[in-house]
């Protein structure tokens, strides 16, 4: 009987927990803003300028959700979070969505009470070293001191890679990416390891970016994407399809400049996405023009990629895996129909 009572109590607690989470969409609509957890400052992904304006690939996901739900991409409250803080902030309800260069892993998806809503950037872990070190491969790093950001997947990946290849290292951990870069630049470590996108972003922050190189090895898969709490399917759907809408708009040839024409004169697929046909918005409890507002105010995925990390940015990262599935990449959206 005692065991049965314990099981019932646990089930009740879980039910209450899920019930408490189940109204995020309604809460956001009443509040009039989306609370979004972002990075503490990473070029191309989430950074704040001197005027306090946030921008980046991850920031655009937050803006897309606000545009879909509230009709205004500017209705976002940003919460800068370190890697160690990010999951607790989401679990506690401090934020509605986490969009902070976060890798989708089995453990995070199954044991933390979280759901990944999709992938907005396919990445992989690499290594950055000073040119003066004279190293051409990660396999030459035996005994190196390695700068790592705490609370990230890079720690386990690094340990696995060095153990597999029979080489040793000395880990030096920091709380933020800026601290990690400062440690590398001051010579506290020989190597900085992180997702390759972060390495390029951190390199341009060095006093002499040309003094460092990124080694050729990519030692992991790092699918990065937005995260929400489990037990709130309505909110999960909105976040997932806000990202999908940006990807699908690129595939359908709709950008911020052509959104009006696609809505009024487009083919059936374009009109369904833009909300002039069908009931996609109603099925999620948001306005019919949800995707139109995303594309008009934030842009399609290609526009977001190019201005934040691609050819229109200081990072100049090639699309690579993040190109559309029919153009050599693996970026793919389910159809809106």
TrEMBL record:
The keyword Transport applies. Pfam families: SBP_bac_3. The keyword Isomerase does not apply. Residues 33-255 form the Solute-binding protein family 3/N-terminal domain. Keywords: Signal, Transport. It comes from the Bacteria. Residues 1-22 form the signal peptide. Belongs to the bacterial solute-binding protein 3 family. This is Amino acid ABC transporter substrate-binding protein.
């Amino acid at each position: 009987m005692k065991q049965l009572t314990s099981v019932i109590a646990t089930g009740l607690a879980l039910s209450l927990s899920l019930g408490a989470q189940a109204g995020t969409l309604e809460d956001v609509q009443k509040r009039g803003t989306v609370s979004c957890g972002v990075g503490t400052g990473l070029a191309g992904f989430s950074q704040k300028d001197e005027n306090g304006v946030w921008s980046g690939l991850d920031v655009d996901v937050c803006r897309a959700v606000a545009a879909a739900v509230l009709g205004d991409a500017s209705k976002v409250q940003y919460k800068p979070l370190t890697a160690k803080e990010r999951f607790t902030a989401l679990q506690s309800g401090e934020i509605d969505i986490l969009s902070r260069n976060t890798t989708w892993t089995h453990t995070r998806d199954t044991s933390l009470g979280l759901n990944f809503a999709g992938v907005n950037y396919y990445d992989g872990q690499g290594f950055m070293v000073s040119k003066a070190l004279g190293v051409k491969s990660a396999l030459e790093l035996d005994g190196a001191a390695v700068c790592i950001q705490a609370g990230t997947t890079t720690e386990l990946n690094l340990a696995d890679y060095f153990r597999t290849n029979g080489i040793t290292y000395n880990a030096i951990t920091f709380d933020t990416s800026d601290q990690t870069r400062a440690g590398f630049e001051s010579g506290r470590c020989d190597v900085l390891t992180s997702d390759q996108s972060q390495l390029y972003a951190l390199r341009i922050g060095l006093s002499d970016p040309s003094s460092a190189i990124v080694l050729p090895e990519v030692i992991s898969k790092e699918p990065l994407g937005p995260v929400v709490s489990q037990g709130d399917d309505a909110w999960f759907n909105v976040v997932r399809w806000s990202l999908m809408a940006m990807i699908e708009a690129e595939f359908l040839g709709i950008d911020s400049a052509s959104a009006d024409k696609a809505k009024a004169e487009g083919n059936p697929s374009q009109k369904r996405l833009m909300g002039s046909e069908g009931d996609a918005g109603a099925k999620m409890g948001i306005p019919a023009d949800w995707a139109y507002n995303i594309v008009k105010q934030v842009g399609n995925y290609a526009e977001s990629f190019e201005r934040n990390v691609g050819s229109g940015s200081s990072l100049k990262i090639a699309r690579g895996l993040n190109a559309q599935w029919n153009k050599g990449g693996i970026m793919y959206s389910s159809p809106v129909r």
